[in-house]
Amino acid sequence: MECNSESFPSSVSFSKFPTNEYWQSLLDKYPNVTYKIFNMSLDDLYNKFNQGLITSEEINDILRDNVVALSVYYDEMSYTLIQELVKTELSDIISNVGGTLGIIFMILSLFSF
Questions:
Q1: Using H for helix, E for strand and C for coil, what is the string for the chain?
Q2: Reported pTM
């Protein structure tokens, strides 16, 4: 039997990220993030877009290939604690033995008369 076990039911949902409208807010929020693949920052991508060197669709493709948004949610914020307790303590055993001996001596004393 294992000591610790954790099990989490999962579900997955997804959508396109970033959307066509959202990439510009990413530029405002993270202007200095550099993509190592292209060796340019979001700001550089935006400048190329303003100069007409790159299209909005190309920026979306670059961002979709290199950016992920991950959110983890728990269905319940609770847990179940399972404890194993000793069922019979030493004092319980002594009491049971004493009670049994008392009954035996009582029966023997009845037969002695």
A1: CCCCCCCCCCCCCCCCCCCCCCHHHHHHHCCCCEECCCCEEHHHHHHHHHCCCCCHHHHHHHHHHHCCCCCCCCCCCCCCCCCCCCCCCHHHHHHHHHHHHHHHHHHHHHHCC
A2: 0.40
The single residue listed with the structure tokens 């292209």 is: 38
pLDDT 10s digit of each residue in the chain, 113 long? Answer: 567 777 777 788 777 777 777 767 776 777 666 655 566 776 777 788 889 888 878 877 877 777 777 888 777 777 788 888 878 888 888 999 999 998 988 888 888 76
